[in-house]
Amino acid sequence: MSEDKRPRDPSKRMSPAQRAVSDDVDYGHRHFINLLSVAFLLLLAVAMAWAVKALDEQESTRKCYTSGRKDCVTIVGPPRDMRQAVR
Contact, 14 vs 22, CB < 8 A? Predict the structure, then answer.
């Protein structure tokens, strides 16, 4: 029995020039989709980081209240140099 050493895939039997002609992939569209995917994944990562931070802050506030403290939430007021004396 003699085995045929030629590859069975027709694209492997073609020369590189022939493969380049038959390759009709739109690389501009592919790059755009890849860029869009990266932007979406970055947005997703930022959203997840924000959600984890918010959950951590909420948990620390809950622990503060359950420990019996009353000064758990900071009240934001005007800066000290913006305050005016009451007359």
Answer: yes
